[in-house]
Each structure stands twice: as C-alpha cells, then as structure tokens.
Amino acid sequence: MSFNKEHVAECLRANRARRRMSRADLAEETGIPATTIKSYEDADSGMSLENAWKIADVFDLDMDDLFERVR
C-alpha cells in the first residue's frame, strides 16, 4: 500500500491557502524546512511520519485527511 503524493500536495496547498500561511510560516510552525515543504507540495518526495504528524497538528487534520491510500 502506498500514498497518493498528489493528494498530499493538494491538501497542503489548500490548507496553507485557507490559513493564509506561506511556506515559511508553515516551516516556522513545524520546524520542517520550507524547501522540504515545497517538495511535498510539488509531489516530488514522500513525507516522513514525523513530518506528517507535525503538519497534521498545525492544520488540525486527521492523518486520513492528509493522506489518501492507494491500493
């Protein structure tokens, strides 16, 4: 089982826009480098579980909201 990187990317972009946060803002809130957040939003790389929890906490999301499983 894997995760849909495009769904994660769209979820991040949508939640940042909804909260009017820049990548730098999200980086500051999570401790994740802005360049890493960009790579998630461009669907260039997968996300570690640790970073997923940090992002989910900032946006008050369940992991199911952040990830879409691909079977």
Task: Write up this protein.
With 71 residues, the chain is mainly alpha-helical. Helix content is 63%, strand content 6%. It is built from five helices and two strands, in the order βαααααβ. The protein has helices spanning 5-18, 23-30, 34-41, 49-59, 63-66, and strands at 2-3, 69-70. A two-stranded antiparallel sheet has the order 1-2. It starts with a strand and ends with a strand.
What are its keywords?
single chain, 71 residues, mainly alpha, two-stranded antiparallel sheet, 5 helices, 6% strand
| Secondary-structure element order, N to C | EHHHHHE
Strand order of the largest sheet: 1-2
Largest sheet: 2 strands, antiparallel
Binned strand content: 5-15%
The tally of strands reads 2
Rounded average pLDDT: 89
* Rg from Cα: 11 Å
Helix percent reads 55-70%
Low-confidence spans: pLDDT under 50, at least 5 residues?
A: none
Short description:
The protein is 63% helix and 6% strand. It is mainly alpha-helical.
List the helices and strands and how they pair.
Elements lengths: L1 E2 L1 H14 L4 H8 L3 H8 L7 H11 L3 H4 L2 E2 L1
Antiparallel strand pairs: 1-2
Helix pairs in contact: 2-3
